[in-house]
Each structure stands twice: as structure tokens, then as C-alpha cells.
Amino acid sequence: MMAEQQNPETPHLPDQPRNLTGSPRQALLDHLASDGTWVREELAHGTFEAWHFFPDGSAGSAPTHVFIQPAEGSDPSAVARGVTTTVLREMRPAEAADAAQLRRTRRAAKYPLAERVETLLRTSKRPTEAYLAAVALRYERLADAGNRSPVRSLVDITGLPLGTIKSHIQLARKKGLLEAVGAKAGGRATGRAHALVAEAEADDDR
After folding, report:
1. Mutual orientation of helices 129-144 and 162-174 as an angle, nearest 10°?
2. Phi then psi dihedrals of residue 203, to 5 deg
3. How are beta strands 48-55 and 36-43 bridged, if at all?
4. pLDDT tens string 154-164
5. Rounded to 10 degrees, what is the CA torsion of 156, 160, 162, 166?
6. Nearest to residue 52, comparing CAs of 62, 42, 38?
7. Which of 54, 128, 177, 204 lies at a C-alpha separation of 20 to 30 Å from 70?
8. Going by DSSP bridges, is the β-strand pair 178-179/36-43 parallel, antiparallel, or unpaired?
9. Helix (H, G, I), strand (E, B) or coil at 19
10. Interatomic CA distance for residues 117 and 99, integer angstroms
11. 45-54, 61-70, 77-86, 98-107: lowest mean pLDDT where?
12. Inter-residue contact 139 to 197 (CB < 8 Å)
């Protein structure tokens, strides 16, 4: 069936059985096991539910995968009518994207050393290594949360001009505190960045 959909012009002779055993089962399992955010949406007055998947680090404003299934406790007669075009038209991927963004932002604010990172970003008067390490950690978290403009978010957090924040990000990269990781959006804070923030927190506790 899948092959037929992908190649609609491929003829099937009456005496030629169609192969209906192909399944993207493993690919689906791989996606289900990957890190990301799921958003549930009710369809057809709760008869079906759509699950929108947004991978971590995705810069897109739409889900990469959507799964539709009967909702628990649904009326069997309503489920029997199937996922019609009317049901599909009810889907709102943009609203699901907004919900995913909100969840990622909340999740990004909760991580080891989060309080110290925020303090460094808001109170540092000059770009010390500890401050630049905090920039690297917060930049990574904002990007992982799907933030479309982590640089501007850092401007809001620090109260510094856009040009200054851009230069601080470049300086963090130059000092080996923020590194690129393949196609990962935003990059990754290095182990040295984590260590510097941890040391700064320990100094505050003394």
C-alpha cells in the first residue's frame, strides 16, 4: 500500500498480489525514542487524538511527525467512521507548536546550575570567563528549547545591547566555552563552561 502511494502510476496486474507487509515500524520506534516534545490535540469532539512531535533543537515551527489514534474511551461507532478529511481539517499544528515552545522554555529554565547562570547573566559588569560560560550554557538551553532567536532572548535576560551579546557569544566560542555540534542548532556548552559556572557557584557558597 505504501509503495502504491509513493508510486501511484505503478500498475498492479489482477493476478499479481500486492505486498502489504512492508512497515516503517522500526523508523517509528526510532522517532518515538528520540528526544523531543509531544503535544496532544483532541479531534472530532474527543473521538481521536493527534500527537504532534517536535524534536529537541528543531528550528521549525511545525511538527516533524503527527500520529492520530482513537482516544481512550471513544465511542466505537464514531471510531468506525475513521479519520476522515473533516477530522484532518481540525488539526492545528501551529497551535501545537506554540504549546511545544512554551513547554520547552519552561523545561530549559530548570537545569543544573540554572540559578547561578541567571545570576551571572543579570549581574556581571564585565565579560569574565564565568559570565561567558553562563552565556554558553543559557544559549544552549534556549536553542534546545526551540527558541528562534536565543541571541535576542539573551538581550532580554541581560539587558545588554544586541551587538554586545553577539560579541560575547563569539568570545565564548573563541575561549572554548561554546562549540558547534554538527547541524545542532546553537551549539553546545563545553565541559569547561560547566566547570567554570560550578566553580563560581562554589565560591558564592563560601
Report:
1. 100
2. -60, -35
3. antiparallel
4. 999 899 999 99
5. -110
6. 38
7. 54
8. unpaired
9. coil
10. 25
11. 98-107
12. no
